[in-house]
Amino acid sequence: MTEENETTAEDYGLKIDPLLDLLDTDENPVDKGKIREAFVSLWEFEKASELEPTDQYLTTVALFIYTSHNILNDHNIRQDRARKYILEALRKWKSEEMEAGVAKEKATDNPFKAFVENNIEKIDEIYSWENFLLEHKKSDEKEWTYKMKKCWFAQFFIRFGRTDYIETACGFDQLPAQAREEYVDLKLNNNFMKLGAYCQFRYTPKKDS
Predict the structure, then answer these.
(1) Which of 74, 108, 112, 172 is the most buried (most CB within 10 A)?
(2) Closest by alpha carbon to 86, among 171, 156, 158?
(3) Which domain, by its residues, includes 182?
(4) Between the CA atoms of 31, 46, 87 and 37, what dihedral angle is there, to the nearest 10 degrees?
(5) Distances in Å between the alpha carbon of 58 and those of 126, 156, 169, 173, 178?
(6) InterPro entries in the record, alphabetically (predicted)?
(7) 135-168 pLDDT tens trace
């Protein structure tokens, strides 16, 4: 490998390093270097550096899920346990952003309303029409529902022949609601995991017990 190629590989590896630092597999020893190596190879294969920033973000998440699942499987870690480890790493990776959003929302008179108002634009940016065919059905202080007729993540894992990893990406999409469980309920109908044609998120205010 030439010095230039080594530099490029190192740059690509920086995309996944923060996630690998957060990947905790308990007592199960895992060679994270193999995850990094596979990620770098696939990042280059996908020509991900030429993508728009939002697509690079999606690709980073998808390749972390894909390569981590593969290597953890090679280390004889069950898929359900691997999914738990991967999602926990992703939760920690997003925690600073989510905690800031929660604090801002809880400082208002109506945290659920603030959640809706503060996140519609962000959802439209990350889950673009081109990649998800997302349509908002309702968005007010009583309900926020949007429907996706396409899923970039599902298409990615179908292309790589691992439809069983779609569930992990779905878990990633639920992290913001989980961070707001005090005041947000999420009802999710995801048919993409069954290779269906749509996914619907319905957020409502948390009802008092």
Answers:
(1) 112
(2) 171
(3) 3-205
(4) 10
(5) 8, 10, 10, 11, 20
(6) ATC_hydrolase-like (IPR026002)
(7) 999 999 999 999 999 999 999 999 999 999 999 9
pLDDT tens-place string over residues 66-110: 999 999 999 999 999 999 999 999 999 999 999 999 999 999 999
How many Å apart are CA 53 and CA 49, to the nearest integer? 9
What percentage of the chain's residues is helix, strand, coil (to nearest 5)? 65, 10, 25
Number of structural domains, the chain?
A: 1
pTM: 0.93
What is the residue whose two structure tokens read 């280390």? Answer: 75
Segment 177-198, tens digit of pLDDT: 999 999 999 999 998 888 888 9
Sign of CA dihedral 171, 157, 55, 73: positive
Q: Where are the beta strands (DSSP E) in the chain?
A: 134-139, 144-148, 184-190, 199-205
Distances (CA, A) of 201 to 109, 126, 171: 24, 15, 13
Whether 4 shows a pLDDT value over 50: the answer reads no
